[in-house]
Amino acid sequence: AALHVRGGRVAVWKPVVTGLDEPGAGGWPPDHELLARAVGGNARDVTTATFGPPVSPHLAAELAGTMLDLAVLTRAARAAAEGADVLVAEGVGGLLVPFGDFTVRELALALGLPLVVAARPGLGTINHSLLTLEVARAAGLDVRAVVMTPWPHEPSVMQRSNRATIERLGEIEVATLPATTPALGDLARAGATLPFERWLGP
Q1: Which residues are part of the catalytic machinery?
Q2: Of 180, 163, 182, which is closest to residue 193 (Cα–Cα)?
């Protein structure tokens, strides 16, 4: 949203959205609608497949009697990026989440984009974040940063320690993203606190 507000040509894409049968918490729209709002786009163009049940993509596809294909998703992402300066592709749950006979990690490798890991600031995030970094690096993914969100205005001792520990043990930059609302202006202001232009560089 911040790059879009600055006039950048930003494309957004999410391979699969599940859980549309359940209302969003706290007034937040589904991911593809939020991504579209962030760049002034159409939600129908942001994702390749949508499913109602709030389950993993592989199970959602199975319940719907269909299959997800790596080549199809890769082509869809590249089509979404046409004419844009930047493609922001949001993952689905985590690198080892299955689509079927392939995972989010295989899709990330096929796309060849730099990776930014989103992490919670609370208890359990050290293990989750370091495992994600290990899995990503073992596959050869280019991990640029970890972003802890929602980062409170007054973080606790544990949250500050979590950030410092992940940064030290993971040998990675750990940025923070404050809590925000789904409004475009609020999303842009929150995003502007991140050094995303550096992460997008070579």
Answers
A1: 14
A2: 180
